[in-house]
Amino acid sequence: MEVINALGRRKAAVARVFVSEGKGQITINKRDIDTYFPSSILQYVVKQPLNKLGVIEKYDIKVNLDGGGFKGQAEALRLAIARALVKINPEDKSALKSEGFMTRDPREVERKKPGQPKARKRFQFSKR
């Protein structure tokens, strides 16, 4: 099997994934997943699509992660892994889609408006 690549995004985070056959090794920015995401919850989020299909020990995954915070990065990586798994086996798409792993979360940060402290917040109104 050749290397399958896919892209996942969430907020400002971008995950480029390269999946090849192997023993279940996940390498993020040349570091192991345990050192990159010390939180077990974020490791669980990343591995959700692999656990759903039961292929966690079947593929080696190399990842380039950029931008955003750790939560956004973990969710971007989850989307990228799900997309790569569908490229490998299109029959898995319905199982991943029913769990919500194939949906790109479109929510982004709203821009700051001029004359205001934040996007929606206003300066205090003074009558006099």
Description:
With 128 residues, the chain is an alpha+beta fold. It has one domain: Ribosomal Protein S5, domain 2 (2-Layer Sandwich). 34% of the residues lie in helices and 23% in strands. The protein is built from 4 helices and 5 strands; from the N terminus they run ββββααβαα. The chain has helices spanning 33-36, 40-53, 70-88, 93-99, and strands at 4-10, 13-21, 26-28, 31-32, 59-66. The chain has a 5-stranded mixed beta sheet. A hairpin with a 2-residue loop joins strand 1 (4-10) and strand 2. Helix 2 runs parallel beside helix 3 (70-88). It is elongated, with a radius of gyration of 18 Å.
Total strands: the figure is 5
Strand content bin = 15-25%
Radius of gyration: 18 Å
Please name the CATH architecture. Answer: 2-Layer Sandwich
**What spatial order of strands do you see in the largest sheet?**
1-2-5-3-4
Provide the succession of SSEs: EEEEHHEHH
